Amino acid sequence: MIATDLNCEDLGLSRLVLMENAGKSISDEIAKLSTFTFSKPVKIAIFTGSGGNGGDGFVAARHLLNRGFEVDIYLLTPINQIKSQDSKTNVEILKNIFPNFSRINLYEINDSDTLNTIEITKSNSFSEHIIIDGILGTGIKGKLKTKIKKAIEIINNSNALKVSIDVPSGMDPQTGEIAEIGVKPGYTLSLHAVKTGLKKAGEDLTGGLIICDIGIPIEAEIFLGKGDLKRLNKRKNTSHKGNNGKVLIIGGNNDFSGAPSISGLSALSCGVDLLYIASPKSSSLVIKSYSPDFIVKSLKGDFLNINNLNDLLEIAKDVDSILIGPGSGLEEETRKLFNILVAKIKKPIVIDADGLKLIDVNLIKNKENLIITPHFNEFKTFFKEIIIKKDLKNQIGSLDLSFENLNYKQIHDKIAIIQEITSEIKGTIVIKGKYDLIFKGNKIRINKTGNPAMTVGGTGDSLAGIATALLSLGLNDLDSGALSTYLNGKSGDLAYEKYGNGLRASQLSEFIGQILKK
Ligand SMILES: NC(=O)C1=CN([C@@H]2O[C@H](COP(=O)(O)OP(=O)(O)OC[C@H]3O[C@@H](n4cnc5c(N)ncnc54)[C@H](O)[C@@H]3O)[C@@H](O)[C@H]2O)[C@H](O)CC1
Ligand SMILES: [K+]
Asked: What is the pTM of this model?
């Protein structure tokens, strides 16, 4: 949800607008609940915190006033300390309503003691009140401040009807756990979608769940955007070498040393701790010379072959994720090696480039934690058996990946055909193109970053390196595959700004760090 919310900004849909929609939806639901539950007009008390959840409360207040309700707002965070810019904007509007004709009272609660003096605390007969909990939503972190704990206690002790905005304050929106104390609402108004933790917590803790539409288009969930960067875990202060990703790249032959190196440079730029490249002797020396940050394992032979199996299984034991294929060439011996490797290795794997031409689709069908990264022609070749089995040869044969001048039905149909094929395997399929399409089961993501200068050789190797790095950093295969297309395309866009059509794939890694940092 946090990712989707930020991705709306990439579509030009601002958080301020979403907050307005949220507040309006909340006021509509409160009005319904009030006529449903009470025989006479009720008074509304809204508790607000320092973030977006409180902001929703301020907007709801404005709409509730127009519906004729009397509204008291208890600001647990004084106005000058409110952190969310959009909340600030909305509380300022309420402050500007002065001298006021609307029935609104704003109370800034500076310390816990002030809470003892408020109306709700003084009387326990608040059965004709609705309390709206806009204290904490999806942004909750760490221990609750004393003032917040006390406010939650007061809310729970009152016999008003309690309604939480988005998440009952105090509850972890991902796990549903209440570490200290949480509001026990009669209803929770979930914005856009019910957060994972609320489903886990159950109605005892959330009250009745009502979903409020706030105008987020489904595409904000499908298109990759800056919000998806939030999927990456924060590094722990206590972590040490090796805790943040160990990647193995298996590739290269006597003709190709660049491909595995480009994958390696991009993987390192995602922040992985250790990067191993296992390559035949013929290419390993050259690969070593590209970067002092690579740990290069030199394997016997001019190309990858079955005699390398034990060495590779040994190195694989020590890493978190493995990329198979860049620059490996198409030797029969390499084919044998790869097909045994994918059967034996249980760790997250990415298969790219020559790997896709050599590995049998049937051997990887049931692998969950797997990413393949074909462009459309490679996709057709890799899945040819499945395409024949499903009798889709004619339709796929004439298909391209362009969406220009198509209506939504034609777009649906095009995607449905591809999905019929991709859903035959359990891993993630990243089909590279102007728009990258990412499939896993019934899920689809689309990436729109990137530019025509990226048709230069090696950008796919960079993408595969990024996907493998993200797997090693703990993301699942769908998120790794999807986010890798966004990062690779975005770094390509920044590289284009600097180098124009002269950009080279080895330069993409230069920009990855700054995208992640932002
Ligand atoms: N797309 C949407 O769903 C929209 C949701 N909106 C609402 O915004 C919140 C999320 O807003 P955010 O500012 O990220 O977080 P919170 O309001 O939950 O609060 C964060 C705020 O509180 C402080 N804080 C965090 N932890 C604690 C703590 N343990 N004790 C005290 N204070 C704490 C923190 O410093 C922040 O300042 C979402 O739930 C929706 O309600 C928007 O309206 C837009 C659309
Ligand atoms: K809340």
From this structure: 0.89
